[in-house]
Specification:
By secondary structure, the protein is of the alpha+beta class. The chain has seven helices and nine strands; from the N terminus they run ααβααββββααββββα. The protein has helices at residues 6-25, 30-40, 48-55, 74-80, 127-133, 135-141, 183-192; strands at 43-46, 82-86, 91-95, 99-106, 108-114, 146-151, 155-158, 163-168, 172-180. The radius of gyration is 21 Å and the shape is globular.
C-alpha cells in the first residue's frame, strides 16, 4: 500500500468535503445530488429535421397512421417531434401530454405510468429520486403505477393525460412524437355515456 503524504491527504479530504457540501446544497444527500446531476446531462431537441430523420428508421406504428383518429396533423407532428439522449440514471420527471409514441433508438429505459386522477407526488423531483422516495410509498398503498422496461428498437405508446416518468437504465437515445388526442376514443366515450 502506498503511503499518502499529508498534503495529498489534506487535498483528498478537501475534495470529499466539497462533494459533500455540493450534495447538501442540492438537497441534502448524495443520492439526490447524483440524480440531479444525471438529469442535467439529459439532452432534448425539438425540430422536424433532427427527430424526423431518426423517425425514418422506424415504421410509424399502424395505430397512429389514421389521420381521422388523431388530432395532430402530420405538420404538427413533425414540428413537435423531439429527440433525446441521456446517460444511465438520467430521466424525465413526472409529466403528461397528449398521446405520443416513443421509439428507443439505443439503450434501455424504465417507464412509470400513472392513470388519470392518480395521486402521485411532486413533479419536480428527478426520476431517480422519485423512484427512491415516492414510488415505494405508492406501491405500499397499492396505487396503480404501471411500469415496464423499453428495449432498444421498441416503440412505446403513452396514452394522453397519463402522468409518466422515465429512467434510463443504460445510456439511451430516441425520439418522441405526439399524435394529439384520440378523437375516435373520445367520440366513442361520449356516445357510450350519452343520455340523449
Amino acid at each position: 500500500m502506498e503511503a499518502v503524504s499529508a498534503p495529498e491527504e489534506s487535498a483528498a479530504t478537501e475534495a470529499t468535503e466539497e462533494k459533500e457540501a455540493e450534495a447538501e446544497a442540492l438537497g441534502g444527500d448524495a443520492a439526490r445530488a447524483r440524480a440531479r446531476a444525471a438529469d442535467r446531462l439529459y439532452l432534448f431537441g425539438h425540430g422536424a429535421y433532427d427527430a424526423m430523420s431518426l423517425a425514418a428508421d422506424f415504421d410509424e406504428p399502424s395505430l397512429f397512421v389514421d389521420p381521422s383518429r388523431w388530432r395532430a396533423s402530420e405538420a404538427e407532428r413533425a414540428a413537435g417531434a423531439l429527440w433525446y439522449a441521456g446517460p444511465a440514471g438520467s430521466g424525465v420527471s413526472l409529466h403528461m401530454h397528449t398521446s405520443a409514441w416513443n421509439a428507443l433508438v439505443s439503450g434501455r429505459k424504465r417507464w412509470y405510468l400513472l392513470p388519470p386522477l392518480t395521486v402521485w407526488g411532486p413533479t419536480d423531483l428527478p426520476t431517480a429520486e422519485w423512484v427512491r422516495t415516492v414510488y415505494p410509498e405508492m406501491r405500499r398503498r397499492g396505487d396503480p403505477v404501471h411500469e415496464c422496461t423499453q428495449e432498444e428498437g421498441e416503440v412505446m405508446w403513452v396514452p394522453g393525460d397519463w402522468y409518466h416518468a422515465t429512467l434510463n437504465v443504460e445510456p439511451s437515445t430516441g425520439i418522441a412524437i405526439e399524435v394529439g388526442s384520440d378523437v375516435k376514443l373520445l367520440d366513442e366515450s361520449l356516445a357510450a355515456y350519452s343520455y340523449y
